[in-house]
Amino acid sequence: MKTLRLMGVGGVIAYRALFNWTTPGMFVGTLLVGPLFQLLFFAYLGRQLQVADDRFYIVGNAVLTASLACVFGGTMAVANERRYGTLGHVLLSPRSRTAIFWGRVIPYAGNGLLIAVVTLGVGAALLGLRIPFGALPGLVLAMAAGSLACGFFGLTLGALGLRFRDVWVVSNVSVALLLLLTGVNVPASGLPGWMVTVGHYLPITHAASAARQLAAGDGLTAAAPALGQELLVGAGYAVAAVALLKIFEGESRRRASLDAL
Amino acid sequence: MGSDYAIEAEDLRRTYKARTGWLKPKRTEVEAVRGVTFTVGRGELFGLLGPNGAGKTTTIKLLNTLLIPTSGSARVCGFDVESQTREVRRRIGYVFGGDRGLYDRLSALDNLRYFAELYGVAPRDQKRRIAELLDLVGLAGREGERVEGYSRGMRQRLHIARGLLHSPDVLFLDEPSIGVDPVAARELRRTVADLAATGTTVLLTTHYMAEADELCDRIAVIADGRIQALGTPAELRHRADGRRVVEVEAYGVPESAVDALRGLPGVRETAVEARGALQLLTVHSDAHVDVQGDVLRELAGIRLGRVDSREPTLEDAYVAIVSAA
Amino acid sequence: MSLLRVLAVGTLMHVKQLSRSPFEMAIALVVPIVQATLAVYLFRSGGEQHRLLEAAVGAGVMGIWSSVLFGSGGAIQSQRWLGTLEMIMLAPRRPVLVILPITIATGLTGIYALLATLIWGRFLYGIRLDFAHPVAFVVAAVVCVVALGMFGLLLAATFVLMRNANALANTLEYPVWLVSGMLVPITVLPSWTGPIAAVLPTTWGARALREATSGGPVWPSVGVCLGISVLCLALGGLALTYVERRARAAATLALA
């Protein structure tokens, strides 16, 4: 219970302290309007090139939009801690680091979910896509799974930030790579095999395909395997992030490079 | 030119407005400079001395066109700082302390080339001028290195070289020796003195007494946004005439003991300065009253270090002026 | 003459300063290549294999826009963070002469994106660089970069007045790609976007480069692109004068 509280309350406080985008203008502009334009861009590109239908683009990109908040959020959760010189103090805490850092992911994932839901709603309304009412709970579930997986993915990138100076390069490039490799914008059949394979180990890929099945009215049972895979990917990153944090923490204590920027 | 003064400031005032919070925006106003008037003659080395937050930097920025006065006016070389900015800027140099304000990934040479171009140094003079200045500030030979690898002192010297590129008539130096090691600070003072000797008007802000005492023809002590005293170092020292100073090193002096000292007959001012675990008590008294005995009596039971009774210095005058503000 | 010198030296120095940032370079080179890869597979999936060179050029132009949007939009803010804003505004020059080199530099560093996508396309995907009008392509690329630099000045001057300029910049990347038809002209867009596209210099710059790549009149597009940009420069110059005055009044030149 105490650990849960540490994860919840600690996570929210860290979110407010470390997330750079919490002013209303920044939030609306970067996290709501920006992703919506991204969706429109690919949807119109898809229409123009006749690659796939609107549902493919709208649903896929809506799920993907969660990645922006989650990847950057996860990176900020660790990297800004270092920038503000507070990382040492956090690591000095006797509490479980695993709980501390996992807790940080939750607000970002919630944020990502909110963005994905808004983007899907507005995008579908603007482009005239009908989504069966009964599919909505399942869709939210798929988006939540994608957001959570993405949050842990972001935390992994943030952990890498302890080791590498230019962690923002990594997160910027990762966000771009997700556009390509998750099969959200190019159908898997159009991508080379190795890219599809890499995509399987990335967040969003499975959540997007589950969401597409749901939006097509296939029902939760049909989408369940993909949903499960997404959660598995997320769990993988959750473990990887904590492992990396442990390794780098030990390493930086030995080399005294913890707060050296 | 039509003006005998390099700098004329008349009742300068500057208010900062700030807005904080977005849910319930709060507006706050801070009066940083509250009516500053002075003149600096051509070729004079003039010091603005005061504690942090006294309004020194604001005053400099009002004079060098970076800020518009809330009210009052100022002229540099006879040109109005608010409306004739380009005329003013052609004639001034500005150097501030600290290590920001340079292009880190460029070499010193590139930094100087860029600013020489911006500040309107004639192309045919640039090479010679830059070489001269690199020599002057002792960076010759290192000019090809990127600034990101420079020490704080080197950056500071590069700042100075930049401020002098266009041979300004008036040089504004804002805390130039902040964070510079003592040896470099001494060289810096020599450079500034040389500049003044060759006819450049210098306005220097500092909170280092010795620096102001050694360099300045005249000093204005500024505190609380107002000029509290203005004169030559010797004149300011006279402010402490008729006083005697007792200095006591002590450990753990309670507030009540300091208040008691203040009440002693003949005592004019007291000041406490924390230096780590140690506190330095300074007691100003009338020169003809020997208060040392009384002071020690009041401090009985407190662990004491060195005790000293001496003639007042410029620093004591400064303390007297600032604490009276 | 002296004006040109100020602009040239300023641009060179800012290009140097930007090009030596590992962060800027990594973003400028890697992200456009990812975008170009995406474009290639999109084009292939859409049965447009013969237009892959257009995809590479288009992704490069997208990169130029990103560079100008973030670089110029944040030009004044980043100078403020460096602590150099006060020093450059103290120059006895018109503000436009001080800021324009910075925004043109962001356009020039955007060229890295175009070069990267072309080289990547050539070597990884064997895209043959047979431009319909090679000379016109080079001219159009240079004009496009300078023109976007001028447009960048307008962005720099107006963004600095906004409290949420970063948010605005983050918002404007995709819609300009979309409306200007950088990757492909989008004929299926709603008709009301037409006038917006017509006044954006990005539309004409992208169009000129596409015409030089796969055939078309090129020069009219180059001319319109330049004309609009000069107008932006004039507006940006006026705005900057106002901005400078306001900054001196509000004490926002230095980092608070």
TrEMBL record, chain A:
Query: What keywords would UniProt list here?
Result: Antibiotic resistance, Membrane, Transmembrane, Transmembrane helix
**Presence of keyword Transmembrane:** yes
Task: Give the subcellular location.
Answer: Membrane
Q: How does it sit in the membrane?
A: Multi-pass membrane protein
Looking at the record, the residues that make up the ABC-2 type transporter transmembrane domain are: 25-213
Among Pfam families, the record links this protein to:
ABC2_membrane (PF01061)
Q: Which PANTHER family match?
A: NODULATION PROTEIN J
* Major localization class: membrane
Record's superkingdom?
Answer: Bacteria
Listed transmembrane segments:
21-44, 56-79, 105-129, 135-160, 167-186, 231-248
| Keyword Transmembrane helix listed | yes
State the name under which the record lists this protein. ABC transporter permease
